[in-house]
């Protein structure tokens, strides 16, 4: 309602307007309002801002709209590691390690390098779901990607053990 009013009054909207409106949808857990904001984002100039798209995916994931979140992810081209981390975080709310594994494989094909946040999400998922073999595989990959050994030990101890 407030978003429509800003357009009606001619008040310009920007990335921060949409990000904060999506945060509001998260707080109240209103997927329908989030979908309306998604429509306004498509109509605006910020339709393909990475920060807005990440916020939109986050809102969908946290309001049980995983399919919508993945459609948003597939549609925008400027994916950065934060975008991938948003997807890993959202998918980690489920319990299917194969889906996360497929997305990790897709990440590797892009040439982007996973970071500490990526592995923190993956270790937490593996620990909570008791996928210890997958956790060990991600641990080895973290070391290969240059994540400091001390940090890997800390994350593994915190989430997997």
Shape: elongated
For the terminal residues, how far apart are their CA atoms? 47 Å
Largest sheet, in brief, is: none
Helix share of residues? over 70%
What are the secondary-structure elements, in order, as H or E?
A: HHHHHHHHHH
Could you tell me the mean pLDDT?
85
Task: Tell me the fraction of residues in β-strands, as a range.
Answer: under 5%
Structural class: mainly alpha
How many beta-strand segments? 0
Q: What's the tally of helices?
A: 10
Runs in which pLDDT lies below 50 for 5 or more consecutive residues are none
Gyration radius, to the nearest Å? Answer: 17 Å
Describe the structure.
The protein is mainly alpha-helical and 161 residues long. 75% of the residues lie in helices and 0% in strands. Helix 4 packs antiparallel against helix 5 and helix 8 runs parallel beside helix 10. The longest helix is centred in the first third of the chain and has 14 residues, at 15-28. The termini are far apart. The mean pLDDT is 85.
């Amino acid at each position: 309602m407030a978003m429509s009013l800003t357009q009606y009054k001619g008040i310009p909207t920007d990335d921060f307007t949409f990000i904060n409106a999506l945060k509001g949808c998260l707080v109240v857990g209103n997927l329908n309002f989030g979908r309306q904001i998604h429509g306004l984002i498509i109509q605006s100039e910020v339709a393909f801002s990475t920060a807005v798209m990440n916020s939109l995916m986050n809102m969908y994931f946290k309001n049980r709209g995983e399919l919508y979140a993945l459609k948003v992810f597939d549609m925008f081209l400027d994916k950065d590691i934060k975008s991938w981390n948003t997807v890993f975080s959202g998918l980690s709310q489920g319990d299917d390690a194969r889906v996360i594994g497929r997305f990790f494989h897709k990440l590797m094909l892009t040439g982007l390098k996973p970071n500490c946040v990526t592995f923190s999400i993956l270790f937490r998922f593996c620990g909570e779901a008791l996928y210890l073999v997958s956790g060990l595989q991600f641990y080895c990959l973290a070391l290969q990607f240059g994540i400091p050994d001390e940090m890997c030990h800390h994350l593994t101890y915190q989430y997997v053990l």
